[in-house]
Amino acid sequence: MQLQFVRKLIGMYVERIVGKVFPNETGAARLQQIGLFTLIFTLEESDVPVTIARLSKITGQSRSKVHLQLQKLVKVGVVEQKKALNRHGRGQVFYFSIKQTAKTRQLVKAIGKAAGKKR
How many domains does the chain have? Predict the structure, then answer.
């Protein structure tokens, strides 16, 4: 039951990603966006913030390529970015996370309830 809710939740986000085609965008770029979204979705539960540098290191893609695809995800509204001070407290860095909507919050709540019933 829980897996069904997770699939529906991810499906809602993926539909928004593939539903918006930017000018001169390839199918490969949309697949990159889905991959980055999935990576952020799994990484944001860890104690380490999700940054362009971290995503770049994990994927082996340049920071500029990761940044380009992240900006598209922000524009579509499935990812949000927040400014913060870097670890040295001097410069700024962006942290990325999955953007919740009323529908996604409802599904997350249902997933939590389903998980609670299995225990």
Answer: 1
